UniProtKB/TrEMBL annotation:
It comes from Umbelopsis ramanniana AG. One of its GO terms (biological process) is DNA replication. This is SF4 helicase domain-containing protein. GO terms for molecular function: 5'-3' DNA helicase activity; ATP binding; single-stranded DNA binding. Residues 414-663 form the SF4 helicase domain.
Length: 697
């Protein structure tokens, strides 16, 4: 099917394809070559090829993107540029990245803080703030290093369609040709046949991960009839016209049309959007929703082309940003709760706040619908909801009127306000209440107690709940860390079941999980730069750095320098967590001391480490008697609750688990019957069982 775009939009999309080629994101040699896999073509997308993209490829930045003043100043100061104020309060003078190549003193670039533009009166160069950053990084040789689980796996098979493209293109026809299933879907979803056909929703058979595990090594897995949702894009073909192409399929259960069964290809390559093809060439406004049903509901009732996010989590990868450049108005219609509205604000800043409008589905009604599809099911007027969409307030000073809706939303969703809950260790929720953005957590414990094992399990736990995660392991190689996490994810030692590797690896690959390629001593500036890229490109919400000592090793000439470097690193991480609204978990080794138990003063470094932290968690172990280990929460800035959580390590699953109620009762009985069993903490002895919060277990 040919697709003619206006000349301006056609040029824009061609440039976007060229950007893909430069970034090595996709196999594209020239604009006239399709940039995704076709069954009959020798070209194919390989997610393993994106290793170079994630590490060194240039960021795509929307032309509507406008940096905040704080972002500009933070960048200049963090790169030791020392901006000079001018008589104009909205402008500063900084080093020109072009003049820096020929002379040292080059404070000739005038940077407009209001609009993010710069110009140099010496070399006459000018451009946007992103042009300044790119030129500066090119001069300094900055190299961003981040890879995904697919890159570590290095398996190119997972990035290919499992069947020929001509077969995939018939799935929509198969659904339309099956009246009984089509009618059931229409009744259950309240979507019309015309809407399903317009979005190319199809019918096909795919195997679930469970059936593949059951058949591992023993034949073919059972196939399940599924509803398929295609992600599409436009490709400039040899006929010099744009054609609609399918880049990935999401297959879901017939009885639960939002429950995924499989993805095809397996590798989560986001180069298209569900519903992208429904936008006509002249379209100026679009709607972005969280899932496919919301997109079709919005389109069916408003007539505005609607797309859904490419993954099941709140991620808008930079690989799809070029597809949205031709639209001057974007409605962000995500879930009307705490997480959804935070994601909407993040996306608005990435896409350009001037063209984004945030939709609040509830419109102040506590019992109102959370999503566009729920609004459809409740017979709400979706056009009326859309007409009340508002732009994002980004002034530095706000009054309560502007905060009122956010505060009200936290009252409506108290559980989300507490943070993401741990499913592996429910007792942790009773103390810390949840995993929240914008916080800094310090984790410490004796050598060999299992700090990396525990934090890898907890990070995986939150990642499975949709928290996009970035791992920075400065002590353990990424492949070793990924191997441990894959076994924890599978709940078994896969060296004893190698025939199940592909099945678990395919599921593991769907997680929004990324890894820094740094290892050993790394400057905090480089770490922050990589984290900034990850937050922008992948919408990362949780960053783990393991550990502080290895990251800062061999930096500083004297012990005093080392203290200063560590304090600077802590200050930068604290500032980054707050300004970017991400949770940073920092592993820090304790001091070498002979005390039977660690306390908050045992954390290595100055008092600044624990002062800046929102949470301090110490892994304790009993040095006498039975082998008893527990997580000791020594600081909790959220609500002040402290407590100890005993756990056991399961060698079979490579994971920890909390005590059962019976085990807790037995532990208390043993500790109460032996008055000699006590533990030295802070200023005196305290009985472990007596100290444990009863409501935790």
């Amino acid at each position: 099917m040919s697709y003619m775009l206006p000349r301006a939009n056609r040029t824009l999309l061609l440039r976007s394809q060229c950007w893909y080629s430069r970034a090595n994101t996709l196999t594209l040699l020239r604009p006239t070559t399709s940039y995704f896999y076709r069954a009959h073509s020798t070209k194919h997308v390989t997610h393993a090829d994106t290793a170079a993209t994630n590490s060194a490829g240039p960021e795509f930045v929307s032309k509507y993107y406008q940096p905040r003043k704080s972002e500009i100043m933070d960048f200049l100061y963090s790169h030791q540029q020392m901006p000079v104020p001018t008589s104009n309060n909205t402008a500063v003078i900084a080093k020109c990245p072009q003049c820096m190549k020929v002379k040292r003193n080059s404070f000739t670039a005038h940077v407009d803080l209001e609009h993010g533009n710069y110009s140099c009166r010496t070399c006459n160069t000018k451009g946007s703030w992103q042009d300044y950053i790119k030129a500066f990084r090119k001069k300094k040789g900055d190299n961003i290093k981040a890879i995904s689980t697919s890159d570590i796996r290095g398996d190119r098979k997972s990035a290919r369609f499992s069947r020929p493209m001509n077969e995939i293109e018939l799935y929509s026809t198969q659904l339309q040709g099956n009246p009984s299933i089509l009618e059931d879907v229409c009744i259950d979803t309240r979507l019309t046949k015309e809407t399903l056909e317009a979005y190319r929703v199809g019918l096909a058979e795919y195997s679930s991960a469970e059936s593949k595990l059951a058949a591992a090594g023993d034949g073919e897995p059972n196939h399940t009839q599924c509803i398929t949702y295609p992600q599409t894009t436009l490709s400039y073909g040899d006929n010099q016209k744009f054609t609609i192409e399918t880049t990935r399929l999401k297959a879901c259960h017939l009885d639960n049309v939002q429950q995924p069964v499989a993805f095809d290809p397996v590798a989560p390559i986001a180069t298209g959007l569900f519903g992208y093809h429904v936008a006509p060439a002249e379209a100026e406004a679009v709607i972005i929703t969280r899932n496919e049903l919301d997109a079709m509901s919005a389109y069916q009732n408003t007539g505005i082309p609607s797309f859904s996010l490419p993954t099941s989590v709140y991620q808008l990868p930079q690989t799809v940003l070029p597809l949205l450049e031709r639209f001057s108005k974007i409605y962000l219609w995500l879930d009307d709760d705490v997480d959804g509205q935070l994601a909407a604000e993040t996306f608005a800043h990435k896409l350009g706040e001037s063209r984004c409008f945030i939709v609040n589905t509830r419109m102040g009604d506590a019992q109102g619908p959370l999503t566009a599809h729920q609004a459809l099911l409740q017979n709400k007027n979706l056009n009326d909801i859309l007409s009340k969409a508002s732009i994002l307030q980004h002034d530095q000073i706000v009054d309560f009127h502007e905060l009122r809706d956010e505060v009200y939303r936290e009252f409506l969703s108290p559980d989300q306000a507490k943070g993401v809950q741990s499913t592996d260790l429910p007792a942790l929720n009773a103390v810390l209440k949840g995993h929240r953005p914008g916080e800094l957590t310090i984790l410490t414990g004796p050598t060999g107690v299992g700090k990396t094992t525990i934090i890898s399990q907890l990070s995986l736990d939150y990642c499975k709940s949709g928290v996009t995660t970035l791992w920075g392991s400065f002590e353990i190689l990424n492949k070793r860390l990924a191997k441990k996490m894959l076994c924890q994810f599978a709940g078994k030692d896969l060296t004893k079941a190698p025939n199940e590797f592909d099945v678990w690896a395919d599921k593991f690959e769907q997680l929004p999980l990324y890894f820094l390629k740094f290892f050993g001593s790394t400057s905090i500036k480089d770490v922050i730069l990589a984290c900034q890229h990850a937050v922008y490109a992948y919408d990362v919400r949780h960053i783990i750095l393991d550990n502080l000592q290895f990251m800062l090793s061999q930096q500083g000439r004297s012990s005093l320098d080392k203290w200063d470097i560590q304090d600077e690193a802590i200050a930068e991480l604290r500032k980054f967590a707050t300004s970017k609204d991400v949770h940073i978990t920092l592993v820090v080794h304790p001091r070498k001391e002979n005390a039977p138990a660690l306390d908050i003063n045992s954390v290595f470094g100055s008092a600044k480490v624990t002062q800046e932290a929102d949470n301090v968690v110490i892994i304790q172990k009993n040095s006498q008697g039975e082998d008893l280990r527990f997580l000791d929460i020594k600081k909790n800035r959220f609500d002040g609750t402290l407590g100890s959580i005993p756990y056991k390590f399961d060698n079979a699953t490579m994971k920890i688990r909390g005590y059962t109620q019976q085990e807790m009762n037995d532990l208390k009985r043993r500790t109460q019957s032996s008055q000699k069993r006590s533990y030295d903490y802070d200023e005196g002895n305290y009985n472990l069982a007596a100290n444990m919060a009863q409501d935790t277990f």
